[in-house]
Amino acid sequence: MMSSKMPAQKLSRRHPMQRLNAPERGLSALLHAASLMSFAYNFRYLYITPNPVNESYGWHFQFLTIIGLSLATLTSTTGLLSDLTLSSALFTAKNTLSITAAPINILISILYWSLRLVDPALVIPEWAPRLPQAIDWGFHVIPACALTLDLLLFSPPWTITWIPAVGVSSFIAFGYWFWIEKCFGVNGFYPYPIFELLSLKGRVGLFATSAALMAGVTTGLRSLYEVVNGKAVVAKKRT
């Protein structure tokens, strides 16, 4: 009797459109644990590497990259806890966090590598220590990849349209702008050199473009999810 209930209980934790079982003490837990080890390695680098930012107002949270890494860490921690406890509440919390964490980390990767391709001096201050390649990837590649895999393979579908995506993205983009201006007022420098080069109108344009790009990433992830897992079909009632 017990054995016949186990498969049903396992399936009940998985949405019909979800590619792989989660929460689960298997592949899902492995992805979250591996992600957290990478994130911890990069946070350790921040603590042990001499950098003027270490003593400045806002610490490394002046960088959008570190804000994104923190969101990724919170999301993966919640995901791992849900795997270990098989808690549906923690699983729901992880999925809610990933809706913001995944797009913002993909946006960070796009902006960082695009600007670096144009000129590394746009995103890397002269006074900042140069990043080893493994650390660079840990900041600007691995969080986006890990969260995307989690969202596509271990998460149920979510419904988000263009207008809410624009609203959330605009709030994050201009909230970050307010934050770095506050830090600039105390520290006298911007975390990214590109902010120094742009006028006020230029910074407004940059953040507006970033908000639109993040909204596009969010809706693009939803479309990609449907490609990977299929699209829900709502049956119409017969009259």
From TrEMBL:
<dbReference type="InterPro" id="IPR006838">
    <property type="entry name" value="ADTRP_AIG1"/>
</dbReference>
<dbReference type="Pfam" id="PF04750">
    <property type="entry name" value="Far-17a_AIG1"/>
</dbReference>
<feature type="transmembrane region" description="Helical">
    <location>
        <begin position="96"/>
        <end position="115"/>
    </location>
</feature>
<keyword id="KW-0472">Membrane</keyword>
<feature type="transmembrane region" description="Helical">
    <location>
        <begin position="64"/>
        <end position="84"/>
    </location>
</feature>
<keyword id="KW-0812">Transmembrane</keyword>
<feature type="transmembrane region" description="Helical">
    <location>
        <begin position="161"/>
        <end position="180"/>
    </location>
</feature>
<protein>
    <submittedName>
        <fullName>Integral membrane protein</fullName>
    </submittedName>
</protein>
<dbReference type="GO" id="GO:0012505">
    <property type="term" value="C:endomembrane system"/>
</dbReference>
<keyword id="KW-1133">Transmembrane helix</keyword>
<dbReference type="GO" id="GO:0016020">
    <property type="term" value="C:membrane"/>
</dbReference>
